[in-house]
Amino acid sequence: MEEVRNEVQNEEPETGKENKSKSERFIRLAEGRVTKARMAISRLSYLSNTGNYEYTPQQVEQMFSVLEQELAEVKSGFMKTAKEEKKFSFQ
Question: Which of 12, 52, 67, 82 has a 20 to 30 Å separation from 76 between CA atoms?
Fold first, then answer.
């Protein structure tokens, strides 16, 4: 978790913050963070080289289970904001 905090602190400082919309900031930050995440995930494939590493199917399953769970939690955070309010009416 400390690495995530450091990455956020190391991101480009907000210059001209008042001139940037929330949407523009989201796009700028999301593009960089998704690119970094994709590169990190891609590097996991190097661990599949059995000439250099030894692992069990259980270890592989555990590794991917944690990644899938984290991704699902992050996605659910975005889905909460997109939900419509359910309103009751007799009409």
Answer: 12
Other residues' Cβ atoms within 10 Å of the Cβ of residue 29: 13
H or E element: which one contains 10? Answer: helix 2-10
The dihedral sign for the CA sequence 48, 51, 52, 57: positive
In this predicted structure, what is the pLDDT of residue 20? 82
At residue 13, does pLDDT exceed 80? no
Query: Could you give the CA distance from residue 39 to residue 23 in angstroms, rounded to a whole number?
Result: 24
* Token pair of 88 as six digits: 């009751």
- Residue 36 CA to its chain's centroid (Å): 9
What's the pTM? 0.65
